[in-house]
Design brief:
heterodimer, A: 208 residues, Immunoglobulin-like, 5-stranded mixed β-sheet, 4-stranded antiparallel β-sheet, rod-shaped, B: mainly alpha, 8 helices, 61% helix
Chain lengths: 208, 196
């Protein structure tokens, strides 16, 4: 058994938590803005090949360096050819603030280095830089089809459930459930019976 | 078991830990639960709905985005939590006080982390060579996950403390001076002796 005040507090806290959670889940989901899609801005400090590079020979790898360290589970780096197809099937490698990917370019044309990264502060960045190989001309601006292909690189990056956070949430929910249940089903102690000991003297002095 | 009880203090702190301890704890718990609900919604937005993190702003943040991006809000809440844990601690005795103190110590460090973020945001100078405000442990863990962790490790001992406070053993009950436990059954006795 619980006192009315205690029960009221428990139920009020539970009601607020439930109301806030339900409200949040019931809110219309706003249109999720795509991660900023540009040439990187001040978050990209360097790239190899550099933007708009005109190369006589094909690079064997591309490198992009960011102002912050991309999260281990949150990065993509690829190179697309003129038709928007990925060049090579290697994996990007993260080292500090840098992403590197080996590429195998066997024909001339315009190519696009595309990345999608997530940083520890929650920011995400999808961007690209263009270069040409063997054409002698700067790469042409992205066509709509090429832009869609580049943006698709970012959209393929999903957000899996973080296992640590998921476990923490479950543990918290369990603790709340156990505490609330125990409060509701257990009886509060009765004090001040005739045989209960006198309170400490020093406290009684303060009470006066 | 001997349970230490602090002399009852006069003034606001004394009243908060005496006659108004239960009301103060209830208000504090409401704030904590509302804050938790915001984080649960944010987690659902990220992992359930697949929203990008900058767009996952909880409930209030959907309407007032500046709330989420402002370090004032985060630091203010961390400070509120710390002050509440500190101010309401004298009302706890025995095991409940131990758990409450664990929560207070953890929140103290959590508050330091937020103070670092707040300082960087106000000064415009970033620490650790980062491009954005960064706390110490954030060098290892992403911010959302890190603060979910902090909130958890502060929340769980706080709840245990509240439970033990409401269900004390005999020694703890004898040492309790606040209004929380079965106050309708417990009539404080006055000493027959004269005060010193």
């Amino acid at each position: 058994m619980v006192t009315p005040g205690t029960r009221g507090g428990i139920l009020a806290a539970a009601a607020v938590g439930l109301a806030m959670t339900v409200t949040g889940l019931a809110l219309p989901v706003p249109a999720v803005a795509a991660p900023r899609m540009d040439t990187g801005g001040d978050l990209v400090t360097a790239s190899v090949p550099p933007a708009q590079a005109v190369l006589a020979t094909a690079p064997t790898r591309v490198v992009v360096t960011f102002a912050a360290e991309p999260l281990a589970e949150g990065y993509h780096l690829t190179v697309l050819d003129t038709e928007g197809r990925p060049v090579g099937d290697t994996e990007a490698v993260r080292s500090g603030h840098t992403l590197t990917r080996d590429v195998a370019i066997d024909r001339p044309g315009d190519f696009t280095t595309v990345w999608h990264v997530r940083f520890a502060d929650g920011r995400e960045l999808t961007g690209w830089r263009r270069f040409s190989v063997g054409t002698g001309q700067p790469p042409a601006p992205l066509s709509d089809a090429q832009r869609q292909a580049a943006e698709a690189v970012g959209s393929t990056h999903g957000h899996g459930v973080d296992p640590v956070s998921a476990v923490l949430l479950v543990v918290n929910a369990l603790v709340v459930a156990i505490v609330v249940t125990m409060l509701l089903v257990t009886r509060p102690p009765r004090g001040d019976t005739d045989d209960s000991p006198d309170p400490p003297l020093f406290r009684l002095r303060e009470d006066v | 078991m001997a349970v230490h009880a602090e002399p009852r203090k006069a003034g606001l702190v004394g009243r908060l830990n005496g006659a108004h301890h239960r009301a103060a704890l209830n208000i504090y718990l409401l704030i904590v639960v509302a804050h938790w609900a915001e984080h649960l919604v944010q987690a659902y937005q990220i992992w359930g709905l697949g929203m990008a993190r900058p767009q996952a702003r909880g409930v209030l943040g959907q309407y007032y985005p500046w709330l989420v991006t402002s370090e004032w809000l985060h630091y203010g809440y961390a400070l509120l939590m710390l002050v509440g844990l500190f101010l309401l601690r004298p009302g706890f005795v025995g095991r409940a006080r131990t758990w409450w103190t664990v929560s207070l110590a953890l929140q103290f460090w959590h508050h330091i982390e937020h103070a670092l973020l707040f300082l960087q945001a106000q000064l415009g100078t970033m620490f650790f060579g980062a491009a954005v405000p960064t706390s110490v442990v954030q060098l290892v863990l992403p911010r959302v996950e890190l603060h979910l962790f902090y909130n958890s490790v502060v929340f769980v001992p706080m709840l245990i403390a509240m439970y033990l406070h409401l269900r004390p053993n005999a020694a703890e009950l004898a040492a309790t001076t606040c209004s929380c436990v079965a106050h309708s059954h417990r009539q404080p006795r006055r000493p027959a002796t004269m005060p010193v």
